Amino acid sequence: MSLHRLASRPEATRGRRIPEPLAPTRNDFQRDRDRVIHSTAFRRLVYKTQVFLNHEGDLFRTRLTHSLEVAQLGRSIARSLGLNEDLVEAISLAHDLGHTPFGHAGQDALNASMHATSTVDQPDEGGEPRGGFEHNMQSLRVVDELEERYPSFNGLNLCFETREGILKHCSRANAEWIESREPGGVAARFLNHQSPSLEAQLANLADEIAYNAHDIDDGVRSGLLTLEQLESVDLFRRYLVGVQNDHPSLGGRRLLFESIRRMLSEQVYDVIAATELAVRVSGVVDADDVRQSPVLVGFSTAMRAESSALKRFLMLNLYRHPQVMETTGRARQIVTDLYRIYLEAPQEMSLSPVSTPGLSLRRRVADYIAGMTDRFAIREHTRLTGLSLF
Ligand code: MG
């Protein structure tokens, strides 16, 4: 299928930070996707928490299976819209590479620890991100600096368009920091209020569609959510009632899966229709012009409201469920303890993180902890404190 005129094209890439010759058999976006898949950070995602801790059950989503589902949804929508599937896939697979162990609890704990020690040591001029810990910033840091796979450069040296998509959000301080090193680069849009490529916009939305759906599945599977509770969510109830009408004797998993399947399909069709309409009325003429326009990839107004209501439901009933909060409390303690211990005794960090000159100890410790899988963090915590929190 031919690409839409607004799609990103590998031959028009703004390129890599370090120029490299083209690969003989793959375009630049395909090559980026392959570099992500072969990275160490990508393999670690299999042992990192999405919502449920890795050891709580073998069938819950991990960051890896989540990322694969995002890529599947993103590619599927990209194909229908004529956007670049390879770029959407590369961004989707890389979007969570910077996540700490233990999901958002780990990230919040690491961020708080870094802020609490902000006066311990200061980086040399310009050497590292500002402030505390931001997971989008860290995902970019993984592909730009932390992966050690090539003889002559740090990181994976990905294309501008892939890096732009990975940096989904960014604080103003970090946008200014990136801009000072890379003028007009991947952070400029946060300062100029511009949009990223349509492929980046799509990967971002596919993330939301994926986690809303799979968190319902995992929530019910774990017993923390019930179908009765979910009936209070308009979006879900519509499909649940539809399935019950079509299959009156259906219950259990098949009822749940079929309801989720219909919800996913409708959301995909909604994004395709709403985006086609937005593109038509925007008057945007080419891929560069997309960046001057407001975000074009999105739900219809009605679906946006329903998806947001589902997110609020999951926040209230799943992510803040007492049982989830109890495990995240212990996870937070592990990250907080590890940070404090490594800061006092850096020699305890067995695998040496990339030794970039000018990097503060705080940042080296944060990089080290952020790279850990859940179980490595648990093991390290037990080794260093004698405690067994899990
Ligand atoms: Mg995600």
Structure commentary:
The model has no long low-confidence stretch (mean pLDDT 94). The radius of gyration is 21 Å and the shape is globular. α5 crosses α16 and α7 crosses α10. It is an all-alpha fold and 390 residues long. The chain contains 18 helices and no strands. It folds into two domains: 197 residues, Orthogonal Bundle (Hypothetical protein af1432), CATH 1.10.3210.10; 125 residues, no CATH class. Bound molecules: magnesium ion. The site of magnesium ion has 4 residues, from loops.
Strand content: under 5%
Q: What class do helices, strands and sheet pairing give? A: mainly alpha
* Residue windows where pLDDT falls under 50 for at least 5 positions: none
Please describe the biggest sheet, giving its number of strands, its sense, and whether it closes into a barrel. none
CATH homologous superfamily annotation of the largest domain = Hypothetical protein af1432
Mean pLDDT: 94
CATH class of the largest domain: Mainly Alpha
Query: How many domains make up the 3D coordinates?
Result: 2
Give the N-to-C terminal Cα separation: 50 Å
Q: Which value, in Å, is the CA radius of gyration?
A: 21 Å
Let me know the number of strands.
0
Tell me, briefly, the overall form: globular
The CATH topology of the largest domain comes to: Hypothetical protein af1432
Number of helices: 18
CATH second-level architecture of the largest domain: Orthogonal Bundle
Q: How helical, in percent, are the residues?
A: 55-70%
> Could you spell the SSE succession in H and E letters?
HHHHHHHHHHHHHHHHHH
Which ligands appear in the coordinates? magnesium ion
